Amino acid sequence: MTNVPVGREFVERLCKVGAGLGPRGFSRNVTDRAILMHSIVMSLDSSRGYTERQINDVLRAWNREVAPAIETDHVTLRRLLVDHGQLERTPDGARYRVGFPTRSVAFDLAVYDLDLRATVAAYREYQRSRPRRAPTQRPSES
To answer: DSSP string of 36-59?
Structure first.
């Protein structure tokens, strides 16, 4: 089991992968994928059930506010969450709830207290305010 340290590394990876320069697909890296999926599940209430429409709304909001660099539609995100046990679906597919899968990545408890939307918004603002370096000019070949 890979261990992801306290909030800072979680936030850095989430911001880099989800809100950094994009567009990009959903990460294949095990740790990054776990961070992205966990950040989605953090926006759900584990004590209640959701309709498919409600899950889709949460996924669209996550994609817009937390991981805008990820170019993956809500249907694919929902499928990933179900396939990885992060979401459980009733047999008729009408209701969803947060799953409790065996974790391949362990998160420090401090991660659960993060305000992901505010954190990503601050990161994006920081990225916009950073001075941009001019591209290095190569000497002309004669």
So the answer is: HHHHHHTTS-TTS-EEHHHHHHHH
Q: What share of the chain has pLDDT > 70, as a percent?
A: 82
Any idea what DSSP says for residue 86?
A: S
Q: How far lies 101's CA from each of 5, 80, 105, in Å?
A: 20, 13, 11
pTM for the full model? 0.71
Please write the tens of the pLDDT for every residue from 96-126.
999 886 665 666 667 777 787 788 888 878 7
Show me where the domains of the chain are located: 2-129
Which one, of 43, 57, 45, 49, lies nearest residue 96 by Cα? 49
How many angstroms separate the Cα of 43 from the Cα of each of 54, 68, 112, 117, 128? 12, 16, 10, 10, 26
The CATH number assigned to the domain with range 2-129 reads: 1.10.10
